[in-house]
Design a protein that fits this description.
Layout lengths: L1 E7 L8 H7 L9 H14 L11 H10 L8 E4 L5 H5 L8 E6 L20 H8 L4 E5 L7 E2 L2 E2 L3 E3 L12 E5 L10 H11 L1
Parallel strand pairs: 1-3, 1-8, 2-8, 3-4, 4-7
Antiparallel strand pairs: 5-6
């Protein structure tokens, strides 16, 4: 079994689901970077309190935990969008069972897709399980993360306790920023996290 630790930086943003919906722009990984910059600037202007948002304590906990991991640098992948995890998944032969632990505010088990790419930031986990039904999945979520999908509640193991990571072993680490969900002033924290791991 091959373990992939998937980390979406939006998990660490210290804000409720309700305030995300109210304060953050309505974006996706299909929004061009220039337009996203404009959307965030607009949100900062309308809601100046965004600039006071920081990260939750789990950010520091995970940094400390990853200090103890022994993973080759070439097995650590950094991306803007979660759909790029497909590049990591494709490194693992189809006959090898995957175990994916996803630290994320969103479950990414949605049905939707746009454009010609069937993998996107919101459905990559669904596509993975469709392609590799034997995949083991664990989602580490926030208390107010949406757990519903079209079929009902998220159908795999999920928890709000990030400390369950201490029981797992990973061959790959994937980290994405999700700029549509990460206020730009927190780029500093994202870069600090990346620099620390690398």
């Amino acid at each position: 079994m091959t373990g992939i630790l998937s980390i979406d930086f939006d998990y660490f943003i210290d804000i409720t689901a309700m305030d995300r919906d109210r304060l953050f722009p309505a974006g996706s990984d299909e929004v061009p970077q220039e337009q996203l910059v404009f959307m965030w600037n607009d949100s900062y202007n309308k809601y100046p309190e965004i600039k006071d948002i920081d990260v939750i304590d789990e950010y520091y906990y995970l940094k400390k935990l990853l200090e103890e991991y022994d993973i080759k640098k070439e097995h650590i992948f950094i991306a803007d969008t979660h759909k790029d995890i497909k590049d990591v998944i494709d490194l693992v032969p189809m006959n090898e069972v995957l175990k994916v632990v996803n630290i994320d505010f969103h479950h990414d088990y949605y049905h939707y897709f746009m454009g010609g790419d069937i993998y996107n930031c919101g459905n990559w986990l669904r596509r993975l399980v469709e392609d590799r039904p034997e995949t083991k999945v664990k989602w580490i979520r926030r208390e107010d993360s949406q757990i519903s999908s079209l079929e009902g509640d998220f159908p795999f193991e999920n928890t709000t306790n990030i400390k369950v990571l201490e029981l797992d072993k990973f061959e790959y680490i994937f980290i994405c920023k999700s700029p549509e969900w990460t206020p730009p002033h927190l780029d500093i924290k994202f870069n600090e996290f990346i620099d620390f791991i690398l």
